[in-house]
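call fold(seq) -> tokens
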Amino acid sequence: MSTIFSLEAPYLGEHRLECRSFGEGVPTVAIVAGVHGNEITGVHAANLVSARLEKGLLAGSVRLLPCVNAGGAEQGGKRWPVDDADLQDVFPGEPGGWAVQRLADAVMSATEASLCIELASGSERLEEWPHARLSEGQETKDIGLDLAWVGAGPSGLVEAWQAAGRQTLELRAGRAGTLDLTAAQILADAVCRRLFVLGMLPPLPTLPPPLVVHRVLDLRSSRAGYFEPLRRCGDWVEEGEQVGMVRALVGGLPLENIFSPAAGRVVALRAYPLVHAQELVARVAL
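ret:
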């Protein structure tokens, strides 16, 4: 483990950006997790990949940044704690800018590679089914996950990588504020499978091709209350099938039934139950 960037943060002491390096030569892969400090499932997935790479047999080189926003993680928060900035909004950063801009610039400098992979989660309020988010034209096979969402649109670090001309892969599962061990293992396995496809790791068992979707519907509440899910993340629903309902906070009377307008897979589901009007309660991939 090496420190590739550090700064003194008020009341937090020294903040260090840690990196683990494996192998040498090409191809080169950079793996990043913990841009949002509360997305610990991705952090754990990165550490699982690290443990796998420690066994050797790697052809090429991997740079792994397992927890970019360690300050946020220590505070149990999504944002950079010094100035309450969302680090995803700061990339590509500025080498001479304010603290969080310098941190973002250091991440960009440390991840110059043939392939850049980000491991992320849903928000604290939304659980996400394991999936890859890909831009139009990106290869969909051999991603190591059951679902590939094409055309989701890059943002934050992934968008900055693409603007710099780098090949990217965004893998997401679980939700922020929790550690989902199953989701972390799924993400780690997907990364290792990508390394195998690149010829960097020994062969792995063949997986069926993913479900490739180009359209994902947001299901939103029209009433305030609490959301009771009737389906689980990953379930298949038919057109008109009920996904959940919104109940009154006092008394529990049903206020609204949430139906899927089309057949598809539930790829995101409200985890924090209280909702306001027009808040997201589920996503269905067609």
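The first strand starts at residue 2 and ends at 9.
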